[in-house]
Batch of 4 targets.
Target 1
Amino acid sequence: LHARYVLQLLHETRKHLKQLPNISHVSTCYSEEVTVCGDLHGQLDDLFLIFYKNGLPSPSKSYVFNGDFVDRGKQSLEILIILFTFLLIYPKEVHLNRGNHEDHMVNLRYGFRVGLSTMLRVHGKKILRMFQNVF
């Protein structure tokens, strides 16, 4: 995606997240299933496998992603774009919890910042600041 679209997605995601309470309550009934995932760490293949086995998020398929979306793996940006897009499309079915890897200091140590700067050379710093704001 062009940097302009990434920034627009981040802006919309931030606006949506600011409206939410700090604690989300997710409940189901016996006929409804929730898939809980954690620690993707930039491994896009893992996210695709989860969606392949459980289905894509939809009004009938809820997900809770328990943080640590970035760092270590090479496709953190792609994971965030996918998760933020699903969050905006299905705000009642997709829930994102911040993990310790969604922290500026951890990003410096484990690779998200460097990976983002390498991938988006022109607007990398601006996009990184916006990601930190969303986190």
Target 2
Amino acid sequence: QEEKKQLTLKVEELERKLESTSAQNIEFLQVIAKREESIHQCQLRLEEKTRECSSLARQLEMAIEDAKRQVEQARERAVSRERAAQSKMLDLETQLSRNKTELNQLHRSKEDAERRYESRLQDLRDRLEQAESTSRSMQNYVQFLKSSYDNVF
């Protein structure tokens, strides 16, 4: 009876494990089914994208051919423009050289004018200071005269 009891317990335990395993198998089957459906959907999307890519590749080839023609035309226009630009560039370089020379002369003239201005400004300041000093001296003298006249009268 003890062995039977133990065997019964083992059987019950094995049945629980079997039920658990069966439940896991059902879950796995559901997961596999979902994944297979997902794979199927992905394959459908892949086929659709492949068709799109083929269509886009054809469009791209046509666009490339068109672009090549446009590039060739643009290259021809660019060559003629480059020649004109080189001619104009030489003219501009000559003009730039003249302008730089003139600018340097103007800088020197400006610096000379600034030095003369600073010198004259300093002279004016000195004269102003001298005039203010003379003015103060005269004011003091006038004040002295007023107080002298006040004292006399």
Target 3
Amino acid sequence: EYMDSNKYIEHLVTQLEEQRWNLWRQKLSVARLQREVAHSERQGAMREKLIHELEEERHLRLESEKRLREVTLESERSRAQMRGLQEQFSRMEETVRNLLQHQGSSGPNGEGTVSIMKVYQEKLSEDSRKCKEGMEKNHGAIDEDSRSESSSTEEEKEKTKLLLERLKALE
């Protein structure tokens, strides 16, 4: 009976040790699972943050695309207005040439032609001043838009420069 009690105690001690090991392994498993859950929660929070940032970026991209379309339309309008101004300058130059030819051939009636020329020159100066103001406004808008359209900027600046030179020559 004494031996049986010792064996029984050893058996209980062994079971106790096994229970301790099992408990320890379970605690490790619980700790590992808690770490995984915490990591998963952090990833979820990070995922939510990334989704939010993605939505913000998408919104900004859409706004940029909208602004680009607006700038492109404004640029096209400015180009059309620039072409109209070029045509108007060409007509003005032709009119001035015709008047100068007419003045040269008028001979004694030059005084009447001179007064016509003065009136026309005043009108031309007024028109050119208006055109110049319009071009400066458009040039300011084009300068703002030029950041997004750098390839056509040089061409537009060159056209504007040529038009301003022609305007000065006409004045």
Target 4
Amino acid sequence: EDFHNLIFKAMMKDSLNSSHPVSSAVQSSEQIEEMFDALSYIKGASLILMLKHYLTKDVFRAGIEVYLHNHNYGTAQSDDLWDSMNEITNGTLDVKKMMKTWILHKGFPLVTVVRKGRTVSVQQEKFLFRVEPENWTSDASYLWHIPLTYVTSRCNFTHCTNAYLLDQKSGT
């Protein structure tokens, strides 16, 4: 419950145009200090949980094991975790490409779902709680690769998982 409260606080901060990405290039020690805030940690943790849920617990764990083995007693770059996950998914999912859309963009998407009969349409756009004119920049080109999981009358979360990756502005 406490973690969910933190997530909602981080989302509120991240929904402002003055937010910052989880990962970005820095040139000064001040910029480094600015990157290590609650938004980076909580959003980062949420993204890891999202990835774990989408990949499944076993696949995620195997990716973590590859990552730890490959970088045992060494250093790692920002893409190394995603590369380790890609090793485990064997090209069925480009984890690096998906996760970069989350860590390199500030903010998060609003997904609108419309169901007509047996057809479900989804559309994404950047969510802004409040536009701050002094910090406004156009983020219309933002596109997230959003892992969506869902249940049907024949398949629920206890015996199978349906998944869809929304990697365009809209999909059906």
